[in-house]
Amino acid sequence: QECCVQNAAREYAKLYAAEAETLEGFGEVPEIIPIFLIHRPANSIPYATVEEELVGEFVKYSVRDGKEVNFLRRDSEAGQKCCTFQHWVYERTSGNLLVTDLQGVGMKLTDVGIATLAKGYKGFKGNCSFSFIEQFRALHQCNQYCQMLGLKALRAPHQKQRKAAAPKGKSLPSPSAAKKTGPKKGREHRDFISSEH
Predict the structure, then answer these.
(1) Residue 101 among the catalytic residues
(2) What CATH superfamily is the domain 1-149?
(3) What is the DSSP string of 2-21?
(4) Considering 65, 75, 101, 111, which one is annotated as catalytic?
(5) pLDDT tens string 62-96
(6) Lower Cβ count inside 10 Å, N or C end of the chain?
(7) What does 105-126 look like in DSSP terms, one character per residue?
(8) What residue spans define the domains of the chain?
(9) Phi, psi (degrees; rounded to nearest 5) at 50
(10) What is the spatial distance between Cα 143 and Cα 45, in angstroms, rounded to a whole number?
């Protein structure tokens, strides 16, 4: 499964690179290194994986649950391009698949994860919970590379302002009306998420 996931993510990374490298000023693109399964019949553990050794500072540009705020991810060129890669895959698969757990040395990445919807995507099931897709959608902040690729913002800026302004509103007619409004908003949010899946 590890080989299947990493090599599937590698194929997406190749498509991403082919598109990004045509853009003036985009520069170097992250690469997911290949991983191979080897059979060692004489060994007590007959199967193993092997890949290129990465030498240098190992950095986690994203984590599986998407919650960690990592300055190297947010501020470095490699980190921003990894986030853009995630956004590109998400958009390319209509929100059905996300490459996550991006980590490595510089632009060379390894040990990645893939989240798909519960039923999978085109016959492929990832190794991460589909909740990571929802978390990515909620937490991703577009950067200059997302803009260069023409990726659509995952949430409009005015939606964020509306949520912040909602608790300040004092025009609710009665406490019972406020109780009715609260659950309705929760249902609308769940319906929106489920429509994405």
Answers:
(1) yes
(2) MHCK/EF2 kinase (3.20.200.10)
(3) HHHHHHHHHHHHHHHHHHHT
(4) 101
(5) 765 545 545 555 678 999 999 999 999 999 999 99
(6) N
(7) ETTEEES-EEEE-TT-BTTB--
(8) 1-149
(9) -140, 145
(10) 45
